[in-house]
Every structure is written in structure tokens, then in C-alpha cells.
Amino acid sequence: MARSGRKKRKQQAQAEPESMDKRQRADQNSADPSAASQKHHIPKHLQKYWRQRHNYFWKFDEGIQIDEEGWYSVTPEIVAEDTAARIAQLHNDKSAQTQDDMGFGRICVVDAFCGVGGNTIKFATWCEHVIAIDIDRDRLEMARHNARIYGVEDRIEFIHGDFYQLAPGLAADVVFLSPPWGGPEYIGSEVFDLDSLPVHTAREWLDRARMVSENIACFMPRNCDPRQLADLYPEAPCDVELNYTNGRLKAITAYYGDLALFGSSEPRELAPLDNP
Fold it and tell me: Which residues of 175-200 are buried (b: 16+ CB within 10 A; e: fewer)?
């Protein structure tokens, strides 16, 4: 098992005028209706997520839309970036657009539970085509809106529906699974049982994904048993990656099929994205 993380080349941020001090920047943020002014409307039980909003979307202040379930379920952006970069290795075209030292993936990825689009956006940044599915129409439209902010909407096909029902008719190179965990209560268990997911078991979801592709990435709670993850698809190679940020385990991602071949033999810490 390898801790997840890839160092990214620092992106150049537009320099602010030297005269702009911290107070002026705070005033500027307070004037943004999509950022600081929203804080007054965030319920107390969501405040801890609000404080991490730029970890979920570094473009949050540009009008990112998110609902309560989205706060619970969206993947931190550095984890989503790392996952997408790894999946893109499945088929790189070095003559095409590149992202740092990694090739752009000429592949199609199904995001089976796209939610408000955290992973979908990164898949569309690194890969040629994304099929984003969600059973909630409002959340799907939020994902579309958020993808537009990141400039990748044109690479995404948004489908309103139930992945479990849609899977037999889909075709793609990779399936990304992040089924509902049952809300933040999952962390109360010493070991999260993958058979206790609120809708279908993890094995049932994985069997459904195998109808689409043998290359599957499964994003699960940090307190699940990695051995149970490996047992979900014993016929295929499996690499279980521990997703660490700031020294803390955030989640676990299991890669099956050819995706398991791109694992790291050394523990790695996710390097923060240095975005403008």
C-alpha cells in the first residue's frame, strides 16, 4: 500500500499589487457574494466544511455551487487531482496536451456518482472524455455549473440517472466509484464495513462497474479494511492507496485492473496544489 500524492509544478499566480495588504484582501473577499458573505448562511454543523472550502475547490470564490450532501461527499481537490493523474496514465498520448510531467489521457472515464463535480472536473482536466452520472438532478446541474467555472464542461457528458441501472449500457475505459457512505456518521465506526453501504454493497457496486470496464478506481472511507477492498475483485490486480494530506489520512482508493500497475512503492504525501 502506498500513501497517495504527486508533486505538482507550481502554477504562476497573478501578483497582487504591493499596496494590497491583508485588510484590503479581506475586504475584497467579503464583497464577493459567493465567498465570505455566504458564511452567514452556513449552518453550524457545516462550518468545519466551510472553513475547508478552498481545499475542495480552489476556485470556490468564483461561484462554486454546493449543497449539504456535497459538503459531506466532495473529494478534496488535491486528492481528486492525484486520482485523475494516475488514471490518465492508462493511455497517454505524449504528442497531445501534457499536464506537467504526465501525459494527457486519451481515455473515457465514468464518474458513477459525480455529486457536485469535484472528481469529474479533474477527470476532464486530465482525460479526453468523462461521463458524469448522478441520481440527483439538482446536484448534477451543480456539477455542470462548477465544471463551467473550471473550463472543462465541453469534455463532460452529464447523465441524470442511477449508475446501477445504467451500467449495462455504458462503455468506457475506466469507472470511478465513490458510492454514498451514509453521511459523516461513518467515521464513528472503528472499521467501516463495506457491506454496510446504504444502497447496495461495495461488491455489488464493483460487479456493476465491471460491466463497463475491468479498470476501476474505488474511493472509500479511511476507516475501511484494505483487505476487504482487495477481496472485492480477487481476479484482478489491486493496489490500495492511502490518501494522506497534511499528515492526516483522508480516504482510501483501491485501483483494480491495469490501474493497479501505476502504484508507488514508496509512501508519498500529497503535495498541496499551489493555485492562483
Answer: bbbbbbbeeeebeeeeebebeebeeb
SS3 192: strand
Q: How far is residue 49's CA from residue 70's CA, in Å, rounded to a whole number? A: 10
Work out the number of other CB atoms within 10 angstroms of the CB of residue 138.
Answer: 12
Grid cell for residue 229:
477492498
Q: In angstroms, rounded to a whole number, what is the distance separating the alpha carbons of residues 114 and 139?
A: 8
Residue positions counted in the chain: 276
d(CA 227, CA 55): 29
Q: Are 243 and 223 in contact (CB under 8 A)?
A: no
User: What's the grid cell of residue 189?
Assistant: 465506526
pTM: 0.79
Largest CA distance in the chain: 61
pLDDT (tens digit per residue) in 202-211? 999 999 999 9
Q: CA–CA separation, 106 vs 91, rounded Å? A: 6
